[in-house]
């Protein structure tokens, strides 16, 4: 990866904002054909039964911009009998949640997100998820996740039931040995990448 991955001595002192800028710039350089191929790989992984199974509940999100994945990925996962919860931004507190009922029931929300328009289930709905997919710009092998900085997931993930897999979704080059962390950061237990599949972190 250009930038963060090349010079460990230089990046060791980087702030989170420096990491974010470099990672977002790198994602913007990824060709559309590569993003499409990676979304297909993630779809195959998520419909294989190895990440989440038929009849289970997956907490996911609608990928936007250069984020790995696609709305079509969610459609195919739902077609395999998986119930999908999507986040709803409501105020500054933990995320609210709603069911994914198809792309025609998504509407634009804050930060350019696409959100379900159906019933709001409340912050505690996260407790019914069997697996939680977490958007990330990068993750390290200790489970430190670098998000976009708004803090919604750090305020929300602690509400998941104990032992629930918390899985960051990133591109293959976005798994690092060490990222900057702060005491309030909620660590993830796994990472899902298009090429490496599901990896347990701790």
UniProtKB/TrEMBL annotation:
Reactions listed under catalytic activity: (6S)-5-formyl-5,6,7,8-tetrahydrofolate + ATP = (6R)-5,10-methenyltetrahydrofolate + ADP + phosphate
EC main group: ligase
Cofactors demanded by this protein: Mg(2+)
Lineage top rank: taxon: Bacteria
Binding site for substrate: 62, 67
GO molecular function: 5-formyltetrahydrofolate cyclo-ligase activity; ATP binding; metal ion binding
S-adenosyl-L-methionine as UniProt keyword: no
Pfam families: 5-FTHF_cyc-lig (PF01812)
EC numbers for this chain: 6.3.3.2
Residues holding ATP: 16-20, 145-153
Family: Belongs to the 5-formyltetrahydrofolate cyclo-ligase family.
GO biological process: folic acid-containing compound biosynthetic process; tetrahydrofolate interconversion
Record keywords, A-Z: ATP-binding, Ligase, Magnesium, Metal-binding, Nucleotide-binding
Protein name: 5-formyltetrahydrofolate cyclo-ligase
């Amino acid at each position: 990866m250009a930038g963060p991955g090349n010079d460990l001595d230089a990046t060791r002192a980087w702030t989170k904002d420096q990491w974010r800028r470099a990672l977002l710039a790198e994602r913007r350089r990824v060709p559309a054909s590569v993003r499409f191929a990676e979304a297909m790989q993630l779809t195959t992984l998520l419909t294989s039964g190895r990440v989440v199974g038929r009849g289970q509940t997956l907490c996911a999100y609608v990928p936007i911009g250069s984020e790995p994945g696609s709305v079509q990925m969610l459609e195919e996962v739902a077609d395999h009998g998986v119930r999908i919860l999507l986040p709803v931004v409501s105020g500054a507190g933990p995320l609210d949640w709603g069911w994914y009922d198809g792309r025609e029931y998504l509407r634009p929300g804050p930060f350019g997100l696409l959100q379900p328009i159906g019933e709001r289930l409340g912050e505690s709905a996260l407790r019914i998820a069997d697996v939680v997919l977490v958007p990330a710009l990068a993750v390290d092998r200790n489970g430190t996740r670098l998000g976009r900085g708004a803090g919604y997931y750090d305020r929300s993930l602690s509400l998941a039931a104990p032992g629930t897999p918390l899985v960051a979704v990133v591109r293959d080059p976005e798994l690092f040995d060490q990222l900057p962390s702060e005491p309030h950061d909620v660590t993830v237990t796994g990472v899902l990448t298009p090429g490496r599949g599901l990896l347990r972190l701790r």
